[in-house]
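#structure-requests
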Amino acid sequence: MRLAEDFPITIKKSIGDYTDFKVVAYRLPMPLILLLQAITSLIVLRNTAFQDEALYLFAGRQVILNWFGKAPYLEPYGLYFSGYPFFYPVIGGALDFLDGLEAARLFSLLCMLIVTVCVYRMTAQFFERQSALVAAFLFACEGSVLFLGRLATYDALCFCLFALAALLALRASKATSAQSCLALGPLLMFAVAAKYAGLLFVPTILALLALWSWKHKGLEEMLVRLGIALFSLVASGFIAYFSIDKQVLVGLSVTTTNRVGDGATAAMVIGHIATMEGLFFGLALLGLLFCRGRRLLGLLLFGSALLVPIYHTYKGELISLDKHLAFSMFFLAPLAGFTLASLARWGWKRVGRFSWGIALAFCLLTLSLGLQQARNLYSVWPASTQLTTFLYTRVQDNSGNYLAEDYDVLRYYLKDKTAPWQWSSLDYFVYTDKEKKVLSGEAAYQAAIQEGYFSLIEFSYGYHTPLAMQLTQTLNASKHYDLIAKIPIHTSYGSGYYWVWSKHGG
């Protein structure tokens, strides 16, 4: 990447001639923006594994071990994973084998850095390089973007593949040959495989291809290129359908297309979106007024940014909203960057280079805001170091049964000390009591506790508070268990404890 492209400073040969607004020495080049994004994520965002991270990395390890014939796995991941179980989890599991959780998180950071570059390249094509630099900076500093860069889940890989698909669509639109459109279908299919929610943005990529082809090649060539891309997408879809484990169709329905919300009201969802990205939506809306000659492009970008808010408002769901808002930012950033650059150019004629100082100050304000948001998001779950350290000497491989509310985290961190079958969660449980009666749900947990089935029990009264409270009453009434630990925890929501019970003699 040439410095001249990313740090353009127009200096005329006449000494002292600085009348052009492009003479702004403090404009950050792309490498510095990427460095800022990376350092900010690595230094500021630190915590133990989130439950989703633990689940995907653990599953990936199990799949890899199964492929090498070292350990079977019985868990039906395809039924409840929100992405193809044999794609990202395998990548994450392989990285976890190499260097643990941090290696998987570095992969997510790399993906998000690539997305930032794509934002810059896209905006430069839509508008100009000044807007592109501002857009890249705003995107890199947004809270959800920073958050995804330190989260070892499907999202960063899906995001990266869609950003590359958007860039490919723009390049294919102007290419001499239409053959490059054939690559669009497989790339989009891989993005959807990484995370099924990516289906929401497939029409946007195709619309972007159509619009840019129409602009640069005319109506007839646009129809040809769009037709090739659609053929490629359909063909890729058929190949994927006949290749995948059909179990994932249930997972696709349960986690994405027919997902049940968490009961959040429309006001709650919209209010949260306004808090996280209201500023960027406002800038993007203002950008629609400035891009008169590119109004259709602006409407496509702004409309695509609304897809996530509409989906989550319709579903009444706050879960995953913070992660998905990064996708909205991908479409808002070009318009927001164009708005700030346009205002700075307008101000240049009136107050000189001081207008660019105001723009820079605004960018730094968004960095501060994004950092605070990312910190809060990264503190939603409690650190589990004390808990896993406490349990490490109390669990045994292939001996004992453990019930844990923080099931995914504990079986991930204690994977070298225990076998997967030893762990039970509060999500689902089947138990055969001493009278050979098969029980499920709360009745199964209560019977198992009353009969002393579990060696250790851990509750944190988080996601499963009602069930955990019921089972606590059963524990208190039982003669089999003693409370052996009350470990303090702190999150952005408040403070609490990990509660650990042990069976007598355990």
